[in-house]
Amino acid sequence: MPRRRPAVCPFFAPDRYAQNYGLVFTAYGVGALLGTLATGRLRDIFGSYQFVFYGMALLAIVGMIVAWTLLRPRPRSSV
Q: What residues does each domain of the chain span?
């Protein structure tokens, strides 16, 4: 099972699951494409991957902060 599916379910309405999953999967693909292009460009400019690792560490920290503060799962109704 892809890891993106459980990540989408708790945060979005189940009736909009298909649209939200498509959006998350598209963002994942665009990030992978742009990330590799940017990494290659920075390697060409600086001659090392060292600066890329600093940038990725910064983005990881920002992502964790966003996840901890903004992405709270909605409480499920017990009907």
A: 17-70
